[in-house]
Amino acid sequence: MTEMGGDLDQLGGDERLAQEWLGGLTLQPALPASVLARLLTVEELPAFTPVWLTLCTLDRESTAVLVAAPQSDHRRQAAENPSADVDALVPLARDAEPRVRFVYALVADDFGRRVPDGVADILARDSEAKIRRTAARWDLPMPVRMRLVQDEDAAVRASALTAELWPLLPAAVREALLADPEPLVRDAVAALFPGEPEPEPRPAPDVRVQDPDPAVRRAAAQDPEVPTALALRLAEDPDDSVRLSLSMREDLTEEQRSAIAYVVPHGYHVPPRWIEERGHEPDVARRAAASGHVLLRRSIARQPQLPADVVDRLAADEDFFVKLTLCESCREAPHALVLEMYAHWHGLKWAFLRNHPNFARPGLARFADHPNPRLRHAALDDPEAGPELLLRLIDDPDVGRWVLRDPRLPREELHRRLGVPGSARDAAANPALPPATMHRLLDLAGVAGCRASAGGGVEDAVDQDLQGPGVAVAGGEERLPQ
Asked: Region Disordered: what ranges (predicted)?
């Protein structure tokens, strides 16, 4: 895309547009380091969230800009950003602000990140005890750990102790730790060599099924060591949770299971252990999927991979939450079902269904005029859709903001929308916007003397930005139109 004409200069001095440009640039997924550096100088930035720097995409250059920022809060957010370049974060280990070093020590190895060589040693020598203590939880080189077990701070000494380290310590160091004046350290040493606990005598199965405590009977009801015939005495138990636990035993026949007057509770349930441990086995998956017990079917639907015949059976299940769980958990959940759940489920995670590998498909553009705004939004995920679909939906009150951020939007329309109040923020967030245009917007925002608004505006759209368009469908039972 070429630079977007000089007529942007005509928009200079419009404070509302300036606010929208600045807010949009904080949402920009292709934010260059040079633009980020200028945004950091804005004293009151109308960002959609105060922690936008933990959410934006950072390459190596952008990470370096954030790490060098004068405000300690900006440097801290660099450490907390999962996309930050790990090598560019290294200076945070010697940051002048202890809070920044502490946060870096807490999260340096989060998100599966590699910790660069030398960082652990730097943090293990920090002047702040809590930072040394935090570094001690890492997989440290033994020389570093040896130094920490002799630290002046008792909590650091205790944290650094491991069973692998103990035999490598000089005898004098071991003796000092055994006689440490702080109970915390002596307890840590003792924990390295726990004695064999005396096994507590376990009541006989017939005693457990008659225990007055419902929790004991509930555990006995699913314990495979309790004989089936004995466990079935709990079928008439007065406690609903005991009967429910019994009904999900692996060794019951379907006839025995259906004869129990169990009650299916609302909300989340814990799958039985036999499904958690062996649900990946095809025979176990098929048996649970064919069960008349809805919680067994919901439990097996949680498996990330299932045989094709099991997926087909669960996708046609009469229970809404069996199908929803399948879409949330299983990579093989069919496209039509994922789309149906996306359109009609009202739970907190409904928007994440758009990330399912079977969501985007050719043909979704057919929903461009559907009354359900979620389906109109889904039309944008048609990989074969062209600019004409975007122009058709750009003024849609529920979908238009995502159209404005779509890099397929024609250049002329994107340029025009930068000058339209209500559209300018999302146009400024479009990743196809050239860096030179982003800088032009910053120039014009500076001329406008932009200030953060007293209320409303950018901040009001946070939830919509994170989720997408909403739709009111009673009961979650409406079916997806073809």
From this structure: 460-482
SS3 call for 387: helix
pLDDT in tens, 137-181: 888 889 999 999 999 999 999 999 999 999 999 999 999 999 999
Q: How far apart are CA 23 and CA 17, in angstroms?
A: 10
| CA angle (103 as vertex; 135, 139 as ends), nearest 5 | 25
Q: How far apart are CA 293 and CA 17, in angstroms?
A: 58
Q: Which structural domain, as residue segments, surrounds residue 229?
A: 211-263
Cα–Cα distance, 321 to 431 (Å, whole number): 37
**Distance from C-alpha of 233 to C-alpha of 130, rounded to nearest angstrom:** 55
Burial letters for 471-481: b for 16+ Cβ neighbours within 10 Å, e otherwise? beeeeeeeebe
Residue 196 pLDDT: 67
**Two tokens, residue 25:** 């640039």
88-125 tens-digit pLDDT:
999 999 999 999 999 999 999 888 888 898 998 999 99
Q: Is the dihedral of CA 18, 23, 26, 31 positive or negative?
A: negative
How many distinct structural domains can be found in the chain? 4
Same domain flag for 269 and 255 = no
Do 88 and 122 share a domain, yes or no?
A: yes
CA atoms of 434 and 188, how far apart (whole Å): 57
Q: Residue 81: which of 44, 105, 52 has the closest Cα?
A: 52
Let me know if residue 71 belongs to a domain.
yes
My answer on whether 453 and 382 are in the same domain is yes
Note the residue count of the chain: 482
- Least Cα distance to 128 among 166, 100, 109, 150 occurs for 100
**pLDDT tens-digit readout, 76-86:** 999 999 999 99
- Are 272 and 323 found together in one domain? yes
* Contact present, 354 and 361 (Cβ < 8 Å): no
What's the rounded Cα separation, in Å, for the pair 376 and 366? 9
The verdict on 21 and 164 lying in the same domain is yes
Which H, E and C letters describe 226-263, residue by residue? CCHHHHHHHHHCCCHHHHHHHHCCCCCCHHHHHCCCCC
Q: Count CB atoms within 10 A of the CB of residue 373.
A: 19
Closest CA to 250 of 296, 192, 213, 310: 296
The reply to whether 236 and 289 lie within a common domain is no
- What stretches of 316-458 show up as alpha helix (H) in DSSP? 320-329, 335-344, 373-379, 387-393, 400-404, 411-417, 424-428, 435-448
d(CA 79, CA 92): 8
Could you count the other beta carbons within 10 Å of the beta carbon of residue 12?
Answer: 15
